[in-house]
Amino acid sequence: MRSNHLRGIIQYPRESDQGLCMPKYLRFNNMSVVNPAVAPKESSSVSLQIPTLTATNYTTWSIMMEAIMDAQGLWETVETPPGMAVDEKKSKTARAFLFQAIPEDVLLQVAKKKTAKDVWESLKLRYLGADRVQKARLHTLKSEFEALRMKEGESIDEYAGKLSVVK
């Protein structure tokens, strides 16, 4: 008995298909049904899922997007090698990739950018700029925390007063 959860991916031959034993597979690049026993060998296409940018994942998102865009031949529109002209069609495709990977509120802010490079730089400035501010704030808070040590000769009430003002 064949399991029903595979029916959408694998088609099993009917009994009347001249005794073929091999299942037919759906090929994902053009969704045609192919019998692997008869089909010529071709390079298979790979479907890459575009990650969605969030407020906290810019670093990993940018690494994944660079890899995906590079695999699609689009990264050169963001970081153009010296002396090479940017292909306008590739830049538009890369810009569309980026638009698919960002939330609607961010999309509205970068929609006027005409090139993939401009969109990428705008996102980088927005998220890494905020990251630098967060790191500076964290450094300040650490310094303030270290300064809160109870000093010799300081009463518990005085030290507790210092702690109560920390937010």
Rg from C-alpha positions?
A: 28 Å
Q: Which percent bin holds the helix content?
A: 40-55%
Query: Could you tell me how far the N terminus lies from the C terminus, measured between alpha carbons in angstroms?
Result: 65 Å
For the biggest sheet, the summary is: 3 strands, antiparallel
Count, helices: 5
According to DSSP, the number of beta strands is 3
Approximate shape: elongated
Count of folded domains: 2
What does this structure look like?
The protein is 44% helix and 4% strand. The protein folds into two domains: 1-43, no CATH class; 58-142, no CATH class. It is mainly alpha-helical and 167 residues long. The chain has helices at residues 58-71, 88-100, 104-110, 116-146, 156-164; strands at residues 10-11, 24-26, 33-34. Helix 2 crosses helix 4.
Question: What is this structure, in a nutshell?
Answer:
With 167 residues, the chain is mainly alpha-helical. It is 44% helix and 4% strand. The N terminus is likely disordered.
Task: Describe the secondary structure blueprint for this structure.
Blueprint: E1 10-11, E2 24-26, E3 33-34, H1 58-71, H2 88-100, H3 104-110, H4 116-146, H5 156-164
Antiparallel strand pairs: 1-2, 2-3
Helix pairs in contact: 2-4
